[in-house]
TrEMBL record:
The lineage of its organism: Eukaryota, Metazoa, Ecdysozoa, Arthropoda, Hexapoda. PANTHER family: SMALL SUBUNIT PROCESSOME COMPONENT 20 HOMOLOG. It comes from the Eukaryota. This is Putative drim down-regulated in metastasis-like protein. Pfam families: UTP20_C (PF23099).
Length: 598
């Protein structure tokens, strides 16, 4: 047996050469190789020992004949036998690699046999059900090679339908493998063949976008739809978009959520060309807000506590609203005329008002998407246009925040500052979006004419709102630094945006929290942020003015510190009960510190 193994190993190399002796003896060699397989390649063959090695090298030699020997074709009986061995080997994990190698050689030669279809069905099952990543990968490769090389006619639909049906497979690996195969099909199929199957792929993969519990599978589904939309022609895209519109009009929120996600993929695929669809979908988009908020709109400036328990309906509603907002953010980013074209003004105003009311939503993702959309809508109009409308009401015109501009700007500012709360779960990206919009609001307010009313809109009024949030965190959440860090970044951005003469009136108020933080002994990231923000203010004001302001602020802080010290020393006489409580709290704190040291 060992001699036979070595002989066949040598034969594998010899067969690759087009030698006269090979041409003469190839038929005999093939018959002898098949006789070895008939004798040793039984179903229960052990995966160890000389017999196993002999079978493996014989299969390899047959694969060389099929793949590399151009002047010889196997007999129909030999092909049937070979496919039978392949089918047996696919059931044995130790010989699956050999089976795939043979199948690749058969498919490359385009050898046709009735039994091949049954073998490929088994390959399809293996690409889903195998526990090994490498086997699933090889099965997908063989299947794609088969679909691309053979003219299967209606049988292509069978294999596409098979993989679509596996999108509900119980194990994640099977669903992921099915999606990967569908991605390969979408990427590799000829356009004509793809367009014939695009509706089935679109509808079935779209359901995975919502129903699949695994984020990675949902991501794969989105990639497939994006790839599909990028390859099919406009006629097919229009038909698929009509289906999407039906979902957007559906009474079920899960369908409307799916439609919002799909429209986002249409926007990404069509880019600026998507603008032609805006007028037909904007009325449907407005209904997404009305249907959800016609009964109850959260109060402005009210921070909603997260619910203790969230029902499935509430979760679907949250996801639906998030994806609607995310879709609008995509449209605003990719279609530049959406926010500037006069024919969309009424829609934009309603969308902006709805997005602002969502700043009181319980779900942070919804609030983040709402802030992002508001930032795009507000910044689409120059800051000076808002200021002029506030200074001269006769200049007000249709558009978001361009009618009753003063009250709406105040309302938006208060809504945004109310998001600045200290929490372990707070999303820094969300707060950054809020601060970016507040920086733009500062650009608006710098051009507003000052009046005698202390409550009128001005830069100083905005700075006071920001400082109020800083002080609140210092008093109620001293261990948290997220709000102060964001506010310091806002101060730095404002200092960069304003001219020196615009910055000077508010410089003292801006520097006060920075100087207080820089005067502390602890050297941490917050102190670093304060120093960085102060350096921007200093570069704009000049060193002399900056040092003078810092000296004044330091003096005020020292006076306040001395007053607090004096008040504490007199507390035992003026309020003994409060003094006793304070003493107990101090002792408990010391005891806690000692325990930590131990």
């Amino acid at each position: 047996v060992k001699v036979s193994i070595l002989a066949i190993q040598c034969l594998c190399w010899v067969l690759k050469m087009d030698l006269p002796s090979v041409r003469l003896k190839i038929k005999e060699i093939t018959v002898d190789l098949f006789s070895v397989l008939h004798k040793y390649a039984c179903a229960g063959l052990s995966n160890k020992g000389d017999n196993y090695d002999l079978v493996m090298i014989t299969f390899k030699a047959v694969a060389v004949i099929v793949r590399d020997v151009k002047h010889f074709q196997l007999e129909p009986d030999q092909i049937r036998a070979l496919l039978l061995y392949c089918e047996q080997d696919l059931d044995d994990y130790s010989r699956q690699v050999t089976a795939f190698s043979l199948l690749k050689a058969i498919i490359k030669k385009k050898i046709d046999a009735p039994e091949l279809l049954d073998v490929m069905k088994k390959v399809g099952d293996l690409s889903i059900s195998s526990n090994q990543d490498s086997i699933r990968l090889q099965a997908r490769q063989v299947m794609l090679h088969f679909l691309m090389e053979y003219s299967l006619g209606n049988r292509v639909e069978y294999f596409v339908s098979f993989y679509l049906s596996q999108l509900n497979y119980s194990h994640e690996t099977g669903r992921a493998s099915s999606l990967e195969m569908l991605r390969n099909i979408t990427n590799a199929f000829p356009i004509k063949e793809l367009q014939a199957n695009c509706a089935a792929i679109f509808v079935n993969v779209s359901t995975s976008l919502v129903n699949d519990p695994q984020p990675e599978c949902r991501k794969q589904a989105a990639q497939i739809i994006g790839l599909l939309l990028g390859r099919i022609d406009n006629n097919c895209k229009d038909k698929l978009f009509d289906v999407t519109k039906l979902w957007l009009e559906d009474s079920k929120k899960s369908h409307r959520r799916l439609a919002a996600q799909i429209i986002g993929l249409f926007v990404a695929a069509e880019r600026e060309k998507f603008e032609k669809r805006l007028l037909e979908i904007l009325p449907l988009i407005l209904r997404q807000f009305v249907d959800d908020f016609q009964e109850k709109i959260p109060g402005r400036f009210v921070l909603l506590n997260p619910p203790v328990s969230v029902s499935n309906d509430e979760t679907i509603s949250d996801h639906h609203m998030y994806h609607v907002l995310h879709m609008l953010v995509k449209i605003a980013s990719i279609c530049p005329n959406f926010l500037k074209n006069q024919q969309y003004l009424d829609y934009i105003e309603t969308i902006g008002d709805s997005a602002q009311s969502l700043l009181g939503h319980a779900h942070e993702w919804v609030r983040q998407a709402a802030v992002q959309l508001l930032g795009q809508i507000v910044s689409a109009t120059p800051a000076i246009a808002y200021a002029e409308a506030i200074n001269d009401p006769s200049l007000e015109r249709p558009g978001f925040m361009l009618t009753d501009c003063s009250n709406k700007l105040r309302s938006l500012t208060l809504d945004l500052t109310s998001q600045l709360i200290s929490s372990e779960e707070v999303n820094e990206k969300f707060l950054t979006q809020c601060m970016k919009l507040l920086v733009y609001i500062a650009e608006i307010m710098k051009s507003i004419k000052l009046t005698d009313d202390v409550h009128s809109l001005s830069l100083m009024w905005l700075v006071k709102r920001i400082r109020k949030k800083i002080n609140y965190e210092v008093i109620h959440s001293p261990k948290s630094i997220i709000v102060r860090k964001m506010c310091f970044n806002w101060i730095a951005a404002v200092a960069v945006k304003l001219l020196r003469e615009e910055l000077e009136p508010i410089a003292s108020s801006l520097l006060f929290p920075l100087v207080r933080e820089m005067s502390l002994v602890e050297d941490n990231s917050l102190k670093k942020s304060a120093k960085e923000a102060a350096s921007y203010v200093k570069s704009k004001l000049g060193n002399d003015t900056y040092q003078s302001l810092v000296a004044d602020i330091t003096r005020v802080l020292e006076i306040k510190k001395a007053d607090r010290r004096k008040e504490r020393s007199q507390l035992m006489v003026t309020d003994p009960e409060r003094a006793a409580k304070r003493k107990i709290q101090k002792q408990l704190k010391k005891r806690g510190l000692k325990k930590r040291k131990i």
